[in-house]
Amino acid sequence: MAFDVGMDLEYRLARIGHTNDRRNDAKGNEPENVAFGRFGSTDYLFVASERSSVVAVYDMSQPTAPVYKQALPGALSPEGLVTIPSRGLMVSASEMDDRGLPARAAFNIYAYQKAAPAYPTIQSADRADGKPIPWAALSGMVAAPSGSTVYAVDDSFFRANRIFTVDVGVTPAVIRSELRITDANDVLKTFGATLPAARDNQAFDQTDVAAMINADKTVNLDPEGISLASAGGFWIASEGAGSKTAYETGRNITSANLLLRVSAAGVIQEVVTLPDAVNALQARYGFEGVAESNGKLVVAMQRAWLGETMPRIAVYDLTAKTWQFHFYPLDPATSPNGGWVGLSEITALGNNRFLVVERDNQNGPDARIKRLYRIDLTGAADGSTLTKTLVRDLMPDLRATRGPVLEKIEGLAVLASGEVLFVTDNDGVNDSSGETQLVRLGRILN
């Protein structure tokens, strides 16, 4: 044996969001194949990680002491590797393609060049023990009032949800810290106790809420949106649970779409839920983003609920504690693979105006709709259908990586400087390439 990499590669992939958490008790990132090539005067070894979907690059100038250089996003499960030094290229190929998976296989062609790596676009700093903060599945973002800090949340892929503090003033952006969301004061537990002990599948009950609270009082929610709270801390939008079968057959399902105010320490302070009459219409695909503005919480709901043809923009008055609802007209699905179109994020612009992300559930060659729209709620009556204005087609931005177009734009933030950012959700590297792209759009709102 010339060299034992030990846990080094696992930690490096955790730092860039590529840890396949569901494989940690089996083969980890599962290096599946290697290829060697001399580029310029340097020998390189390329290591294909099947489960984490990256190709790790090592400088082999000293064969008994390889030096890690970078990770290349490898589409879904790269396994075949070929180096072509005469053309300055390395090619990877996915192991298999499955039309039923969210991500698709691909050939990736990489060119040798003397430049800073284009990937990752976001990585984590170390915990106190010297190991990187593990992360994945970023699903919502909001900018701090000033500077270059944004806050992000991970979604239901993980069973103890966190709020991340991200420094986007550097490239790549850096997750500086993590904060566990907890029910330390039993606020969520008390809310659950106000519900019936057990109900049929038409409404959530004590059992459903109890399942959201772990033994150590961390919480198992589905955070899909985050906003700064004027009272301090954050608002978290948690999407209700449900099954695809229940949605498609038109039955109401057990679900809990919740808004939770948490302190700056991550402790739940308040729980807000929808009116019973609206909950009675619940189906899969609920809360997808939240923004506090002018004393109100504005929530984007991903898709239409039972008996409706458009998703709702829900508005909760924090003082009156009342709800209003508007309907959002989605673009029709145009992908050759069919699928659906829905909302996946909302961000406040001030003066009752908001940015929303509208996207289809397709990726790679099937993706067609990834768009940023502006809506204005000024004077909008309860029950009205909103008008939207296209701000930017995001497909060119996603294609700019020259890799597969990623499906899930889940986080959106507008910095105090006016710069707009979005981030993709990598689904915890579960049937996904694991690639996360934090894309900087610049001051596109000027």
UniProtKB/TrEMBL annotation:
It holds the Pfam family Phytase-like. Residues 133-427 form the Phytase-like domain. This is Phytase-like domain-containing protein. The lineage of its organism: Bacteria, Pseudomonadati, Pseudomonadota, Betaproteobacteria, Burkholderiales.
